[in-house]
Amino acid sequence: MSPDNAVEAAPNAEGRRRIPRAADLRRLGRAALLGPGSRGRVPDAIEHIAKVHRMRHPGADLAILRKAYELAESSHRGQMRKSGEPYITHPLAVTLILAELGAETTTLTASLLHDTVEDTEVTLDQVREEFGEEVRFLVDGVTKLEKVDYGAAAEPETFRKMLVATGNDVRVMSIKLADRLHNMRTLGVMRPEKQARIAKVTRDVLIPLAERLGVQALKTELEDLVFAILHPEEYSSTTALIVEHAALPDPLDAVAEDVRRVLRDAGIGAAVDVRPRHVVSVHRVGLKRGGARPGGSDFGRVLIQVTEDADCYAVLGELHTCFTPVVAEFKDFIAAPKFNLYQSLHTAIRDTDGRIAEVLIRTRQMHLVAEAGVIALGNPYTAGEAPEGAEGERVDPTRPGWLARLLDWQRDAPDPDFFWSTLRDELAQDREITVFSADGGTVGLPDGATCTDAAYALHGEAAHAVVGARVNGRLAPLRTPLKDGDTLQLLMAHTTGEEASGPSPEWLEHARTPAARIAISRWLEAHPAAGPEEQPATPTVRAAATVTRRTADPLAETADTDPPGGTVRMARCCTPVPPDGITGFVIRGGTVAVHRAGCPVSARMVDSGRAPVAVRWRHDAPGSGHRATLYAEALGRPRLLADLTEVIAGQGAAIVYAAVEPPQEHRVRHTYTVELPDPGALPALMRAMRAVPGVYDVYRAQGTLATPQA
């Protein structure tokens, strides 16, 4: 447990303070067998719980705790645990764990009763009548489903039920985590194979949930208990290292003293302590260093607690001024909190003796939240403090991106085996990112999620119509992994019905979230792939010119009164039209080729020593038309070519040449050489082409264009 929350605790081998387990359980067992105390006073068995609870909640009403204990004790009377202790010691121990973490009275009441409906004759209706709907909901949320009714699906369906309840009240999972912690503490009486099975479920589901709810005090102890069962040799060797280190002077003590002196001289009030690492954390340090033996300052970190947020940054400034900072180790989780409420500044410093120490800087309130997560919120649903969602559902006061995603996809996963395996995969993603949508909204996604995942998170099954995406303003394939802080604009097909192509099987290869995979799989099952004889070909499309090409163009003339040749024509690489700035070059046969100013081809001709010829637009040109070459960048879809050519014709332009490149990543590029009766009509034509659904850019040709084949 947290040092701040522990009562009558002694440090263990790891330096962490906990309630002595065996002594407490024996005392609670004796008190439970003797029955409640005198009328009007707290029963002896929960006296210690009441003291711990009053430390964090001085005004708490203990009458309801007494009433809940009396019902639990009378209901469980005669039941024994496998360890030989009265069963009532289990709900008492679970309640004590929650009291140490600062849980409010309603949570403690429900934790005392959490096994009564499951293991005794007490009913949910009885709990509601005596303790209210809130306690009834919490007790129901942690009550297991019967194996008689669900068979092998009982465990996954119980977790599904519990997660749905957690979506409406996070205190449900708080009770379940404390329940699992006490069970893991007393797991030694079980058969080894059952110990391993329970430890694996704890590792795969409960520990990730504790991490997501920010309850680090429970998470770290669960990790150590699981590690001891599943990896006993590594656990023993790591524990031996910790014990060996504890017998030696800790170099972090000297660093902490130097830090205290620096902060005292700077006039910053702060509590500076050495925070020992737990067993799994020390083991990870060794793995991070390629199996090297941890030593020196690897067994702990310096923890600095201050009063205000601004003091955190003041401390950081003093440390980086008076010590040598390890810049690569700096992380600011105050300005950008983790998705599980965690806030702290992380840094590392090197003192004058070369010792490197990791440092955590946080306020005292941040420390409480870092240890207890959602439990530190007290009652997050106090009337008037928490908003309500659709249909009266209470909004999770945490940042519930992961929980909302989980609740969404679990509704579409009727198969318990699929739900169970997918839940483990989902919880294995231990980091979350935030992506901004083009309209200013945000969506939380697991690290590694792609544009496809974001599309289904934002639009549900409407994401079937997504044909492309822009990430930070640039066109990107749908398989592109997103990063924290990216801005995403999804490009949707505007076709409907049979014209909409929908997702392809390849989408499953880069979809990471269960919601996306379920939606894509359902669509593919409803739209089986066509047989080979029905598969349409995707050829390169070329439209033949319908206008006879001229060998000369009378729209421009040389500015010299004695031109070097009698023929002037527009260059096909950039197809200038009035009033473009132009320049000319004499080519084979004395013809003057006219280029747009800035055309790369004309720049290369100048670089090669070719002399430009001054040219100008004729004011008396016959109404023979003006040519321009346009590129249309678009997202591939049915009828795109037809729609573009229809728009071009509607603007009064004739298509001299058209080509469609083979699609790549849903993207295609169309090339059109058009002839306009009036050069001033070109901007309007380009705007009309951009308005075609799926087209994201239209621009003039700037480089060399291969001579089209008629």
Account of the 3D structure:
The chain is α+β, with helices and mostly antiparallel strands and 710 residues long. The protein is 41% helix and 16% strand. A hairpin with a 5-residue loop joins strand 17 and strand 18 (592-596). Helix 12 crosses helix 20 (416-428) and helix 19 packs parallel to helix 23 (514-526). The protein is elongated and about 110 Å long. Residues 1-25, 383-395, 495-500, 530-553, 561-565 and 703-710 have low confidence and may be disordered.
Topology:
Blueprint: E1 10-11, E2 17-18, H1 21-34, H2 47-56, H3 63-76, H4 89-100, H5 105-112, H6 116-119, H7 124-131, H8 133-142, H9 147-150, H10 154-168, H11 171-185, H12 192-212, H13 216-230, H14 232-246, H15 251-265, E3 271-276, H16 279-288, E4 300-306, H17 309-322, E5 324-325, E6 331-332, E7 345-350, E8 356-363, H18 364-372, H19 401-410, H20 416-428, E9 432-437, E10 442-446, H21 451-459, E11 466-471, E12 474-476, E13 487-492, H22 507-510, H23 514-526, E14 541-543, E15 556-558, E16 568-570, E17 582-586, E18 592-596, H24 600-607, E19 615-617, E20 626-635, H25 640-650, E21 654-660, E22 667-676, H26 682-690, E23 695-700
Parallel strand pairs: 4-8, 9-13, 16-18
Antiparallel strand pairs: 1-2, 3-4, 5-7, 6-7, 7-8, 9-10, 11-12, 11-13, 14-21, 15-19, 17-18, 20-22, 20-23, 21-22
Helix pairs in contact: 2-4, 3-5, 4-5, 4-11, 5-8, 7-8, 8-10, 8-11, 10-19, 11-12, 11-13, 12-13, 12-20, 13-14, 14-16, 19-23, 21-23
